[in-house]
Amino acid sequence: MTTFRINFNSIKINATFKTCVMLLGVFVLSGQHLKAQTMVNSLEELKPYLDDNNVQVKMKPGVYTITAEDVKNGLYTKETVIKNTSKVLLLFEGNNSTYDFTGVTINVDTKVFQAFGKFQVYEIQIIGNKNVLKNLTLVDVGSVHDHPAHRANNIVIDGSHNRVEGFNVTTKGSFPYGYGDAFGKGGKSVIPHKKHSACLVRGESNHLKDSKFTHRSYGHCIFMQAANNPIIEGCVVEGEMRKTDDMLKETSGPAFDVDFMTVWGYKLPKGYMLSTGEAGIRAYDGGETVIDGKNYKRGTSNVTVLNCTVKNMRTGVTIAHATGKKRVEGCVAIGCENGFSLGSGELVNCKADVAYGPAYASTYERDKSYNADITLLDSKEPYYNGSGNIAYIGGSEHKITFRGSSQGANQGLKIQVGGDKNNIRLLHGNLPNQNDFKGFDFEIHNLTTYPLILSNKSSGVTGESVGEIKDSGTNNKVKAIKASNK
Questions:
Q1: Which of 152, 172, 171, 162 is nearest to 209 (CA)?
Q2: Diameter over CA atoms, the chain
Q3: Mean pLDDT of all residues in the chain?
């Protein structure tokens, strides 16, 4: 091959033109590293790019719809690579690609969830690496009762180092809807259920950021399985709550048909508030994921949750089943059955109200080294806290501080260490391994006027309390202090 060289110094040429030519040469030589943005105008135009590497795709702003008829016509036939038990509407298989959905709404007809038969349905799944999906509005359109034939998820993130950012997701379509987990959630159930969750984070170092979820479905909102180093950041979750009293007023429907007999072995009690969904942000200790085409079975580890707000869900942030380093910072739980449960780890600068349940509750008696600083908030809603607790503490070696509002103290609410949780799921001796814990050898700073109840299952508890101290335990050394004016 002949090589031509141009000696610019021997040619009298405009300096600006010389610079442009030289830069053009650089661009030509390195062109393989450049990403030109591709505009697509439809879902059909988008699909061929979903398995491409190193592409930048922008979808034309507008409203796009996926219907059951589209499924019947074979427009969406992808299967998940794990067990081939799921169908995926939009499967992102490539690497190092960016998909910009700014101004785009994708409506998914809830009838789609049964159009694949017994398969569970993923609306979006990522199995490649280092991809960015941003700014999509994803809406389930139809009835909250249009349940899947099996299960459904709006978003599933596998692979590694992917980021989903700026999404706005509305989740609908499950059965039964309107009762929370009173009639079953997995395995044993009184009413067979078809769950639909919003976002499943798996894989390695995947990141869900600055996304909003409107959750009107029986299922988790954001949950993690087989995830290592996941980050959930800047997300907002909003579910809805119902009084058990209102459920008991029904004169027809699935709960009425079973005479309101719960999966817990007793009739649904009055006086409690239940989320119609499940957890706001949850981690599991088992699951499967796919990374670089290889399947892994494992737990979830090293979870970070930053600056998230969860409203009206069964729990705000529950990551007790994760292992490794766990950190929750700058998060807020409002109107949840329970605010935060980490088992162990760091809860920094977090806030919660206690209108419908405790701001914090131990998951198991083996909970250890849970370090938490929780600011209690006033509630705009009437208090309907069936457990009577603003916190339930079991386990050992914690350092826990409660500060902020004491608004619910005149409702008889309290901080309880050990003993009976009085949780709706644990009445009449149900699930004894989740109740009547020992709370021992930890430090507490109660800077509120809520009374501190040290049950006969407490021992070796130290610290201080502004609220009244009632000690039925052994070797506890919590001193009474006055409220600070600061």
A1: 162
A2: 97
A3: 92
Nearest CA to 326 out of 302, 362, 299 is that of 302
Q: Which among 321, 325, 328, 329 has a CA at the least distance from the CA of 302?
A: 325
How would you label 194-224 residue by residue, b for 16+ Cβ within 10 Å and e otherwise? bbbbbbbbbbbbbbbbbbbbbbbbbbbbbbb
Task: For residue 325, give every residue at least 6 positions away whose Cβ sits within 8 Å of its Cβ, in sequence order, or none.
Answer: 302, 345
Residues across the chain: 486
Mean per-residue pLDDT for 250-265?
97
- The residue extents of the domains of the chain are 35-301
What DSSP state is assigned to residue 70? H
Token code pair at residue 427: 């009445």
For tokens 């004894």, name the residue.
432
What Rg value do the Cα atoms of the chain yield, rounded?
26
Rounded Cα gap, residues 92 and 156, in angstroms: 10
Return d(Cα 7, Cα 430) in angstroms, integer. Answer: 87
Torsion of CA 164, 131, 154, 65, to 10 degrees: 100
pLDDT of residue 104: 98
Nearest Cα neighbor of 339 from 321, 322, 304, 363 is: 363
3-state SS class at 214: strand
- Please, what sign has the CA dihedral across residues 427, 430, 433, 434? negative
Query: Are 355 and 335 contacting, i.e. CB atoms less than 8 angstroms apart?
Result: yes
Q: Give 3-state DSSP helix, strand, coil % of the chain, rounded to 5.
A: 10, 45, 45
Q: At 245, give phi and psi (nearest 5°).
A: -60, -40
Beta strands in 130-205 (DSSP E): 132-141, 152-157, 163-165, 168-172, 184-186, 188-189, 196-204
**What contacts 203, CB < 8 A, 6 or more positions away?**
157, 158, 159, 160, 162, 226, 227, 228, 230, 289, 290, 291
Reported as a single tens digit per residue, the pLDDT across 134-179 is 999 999 999 999 999 999 999 999 999 999 999 999 999 999 999 9
421 contacts: CB under 8 Å, gap ≥ 6:
361, 387, 389, 392, 434, 435, 436
Are 470 and 452 in contact, with CB atoms under 8 Å apart? Answer: yes
Question: CB neighbours (10 Å) of residue 353?
Answer: 27
With tokens 């509305």, the residue in question is 170
